[in-house]
UniProtKB/TrEMBL annotation:
Gene3D superfamilies linked: Aldolase class I
The keyword Chaperone appears for this protein: no
Superkingdom of source: Bacteria
Protein name: Ribulose-phosphate 3-epimerase
Entry's Gene Ontology molecular function annotations: metal ion binding; racemase and epimerase activity, acting on carbohydrates and derivatives
Pfam families: Ribul_P_3_epim
Keywords (A to Z) from UniProt: Isomerase, Metal-binding
A biological process term (GO) from this entry: carbohydrate metabolic process
Organism: Candidatus Kaiserbacteria bacterium RIFCSPHIGHO2_01_FULL_56_24
Length: 218
């Protein structure tokens, strides 16, 4: 079954807890955007060492847009995030990716993966596909905040990657709504990280339900 994963760009621990509690009433997986103000211009709340994410009944996926993904990912895994995904561009080498994946798993993550900016060549991830439980495609031009429009350049990239790596679990993040999700399903995407379309909705649960129907109708 294809997944709709609501995303939170948290301003504080209280802000995250409030929004996660709301989303967990209908979503089994919630994504936390972690931005350090260095890798991307925005900055968000992140748990400190020893701090736990709130127990809401949902599983947490952390999307790291940070300059030190290894240590931030370990902190998130210790806090209770079971999926850790980091921007591939934040790593300086293949060995750094391997070390981060090992550290995240040792800290409790059950899934690890990489995300790609829209201008990063898909070939850059070819050597790492087998180590990834999922690959996340950014489908917006600017990352780190919600409300950015979908960038159609993402579609042919995803189609080509899916052709080359049909075994990979592909995710898309950015500008997703009822209009663009069908094309992404056809392209090979199975996980859809949705921010403002749910967060800004008058009835987030109804929007989540509708997007889930759209993502699984094809």
């Amino acid at each position: 079954m294809n997944e709709i994963i609501p995303t939170i760009v948290p301003l504080s621990a209280d802000d995250f807890a409030s929004r996660a509690t709301t989303l967990a009433a209908f979503a089994p997986v919630i994504q936390i955007d972690a931005v350090d103000g260095v890798f991307a211009p925005n900055s968000t709340w992140m748990p400190e060492d020893g701090q736990r994410l709130p127990e809401t009944g949902a599983r947490y996926e952390a999307h790291l847009m940070v300059s030190d993904p290894l240590s931030v990912g370990v902190t998130f895994a210790h806090a209770g995030a079971t999926r850790i995904i980091a921007q591939a561009e934040a790593f300086g080498s293949a060995s750094a990716i391997e070390a981060a994946f090992a550290a995240w798993r040792a800290a409790g993550a059950t899934e690890v993966g990489l995300a790609m900016l829209i201008d990063t060549p898909i070939e850059a991830l070819a050597a790492h596909v087998q180590r990834c439980d999922s690959i996340l495609f950014m489908t917006i031009a600017r990352i780190g905040k919600q409300g950015e429009p979908f960038d159609p350049r993402a579609l042919p990239r995803i189609v080509e990657f899916a052709r080359l790596h049909p075994e990979s679990v592909l995710a898309a993040d950015g500008g997703l709504n009822e209009e663009v999700i069908p094309a992404l399903v056809h392209a090979g995407v199975r996980r859809f990280c949705v921010g403002s379309a749910i967060a800004a909705a008058e009835d987030p649960a109804a929007v989540y339900k509708r997007l889930s129907e759209v993502a699984n109708a094809l």
